[in-house]
Amino acid sequence: MHINRRQFSIVAGATTLAGFNLARAQSDNKIILGQSAAFTGPAAQLGIQFYQGAKVYFDQVNAQGGIGKRQIEIRQLDDGYEPDRCAENTRKLLADDVFALFGYIGTPTSVVALPQATKEKVPFFGPFTGAMALREPFNRYAFHVRASYNDETALIVKQLTSLGLKKIAVFYQNDAYGKAGLSGVTLALGALGLKTVAEATVERNSVDVAGAVKTLTAAGPDAVVQIGAYKACAAFIREARKAGYGGTYYNVSFVGTQALADELGKEGAGVVVSQVMPSPYSAARPITREFVDAVKAAGKDAQVNFSSMEGYMAAKLFTDGVRRAGAKLTRESLIAGLEGMGSQQVRGFPVSFSPTDHVASSFVELSMLTGDGRVRT
After folding, report:
1. What tens digit of pLDDT does each residue of 185-207 get?
2. Disulfide: which of 54, 100, 176, 327 matches 311 by Cβ 3.0-4.6 Å?
3. Are strands 365-369 and 349-353 parallel, antiparallel or unpaired?
């Protein structure tokens, strides 16, 4: 999916910021969050959509006077989904004294950023990743909104085996993200006395899938579980089908569901994606109705999809933590505010933070792409 003109302004802003020594962020009238994410490159839609969803919520809060008269602002830097660039961006953001790091996109980038945040005692909130490496061991500065990849892959394996599909292959990104997803699949299969029938990789930010297609189709799997981003996963599906493979495809949520649907078009029919957010397409939950109304009211760049829904949810939970932090807002009071949240329903979506558990949700469900670019849940 190409970046349109309005989305380009986001990218341009993020790229421009990267070249300047920014004024120090902390002030009495602003809460400035730092986000390093992909805003360009083959994973760009993940960063763009998450950011847009978060901005819809923060803009609403700011329009109502902010929190204690403080406006919440996200300062973005583009890392193109590359760990080295992310590490440098994080160094700049921390040197600039941002209040917290927010909405980092991806495992390989988050795993280099979290130690930097921890060293500086800066909260690292709502990364768009389900990797266990960021959750275990427990880190008091890391707060996760979404379920883990282990949760997602457990549901995928349960679904496949309940359908009698036991010959399962894995196509995964050759980095910390792909290995985290592969580990989840292996764990879930192992609990049933099963193993993968084949495994093959693709490099991050690459669509060179020919070798992987050859390896996996030769094994004749019933299904291929994909642990990658939308460009590579779409390329694999197209090429495997051309090679005559007729099995099914399952993806974890990080793929970017709408971006994958947009890439595949008619070829997306029947592709399954696990989700860690309530469906933005079903009005059953109040949080979905609130989100859809907020996007419509914003009337700007944001689209209604799972990635923007996650950004919105992350912004909502972060803001709740700020409110609970009390009149004197510090990083420590924010942590205390978040940990004091306990178990609650956020407009029909169960979440929980405590002093010993910083993973808000274990919610997972399956969705399926249709041939007309839609997502069915």
Report:
1. 999 999 999 999 999 999 999 99
2. 54
3. unpaired
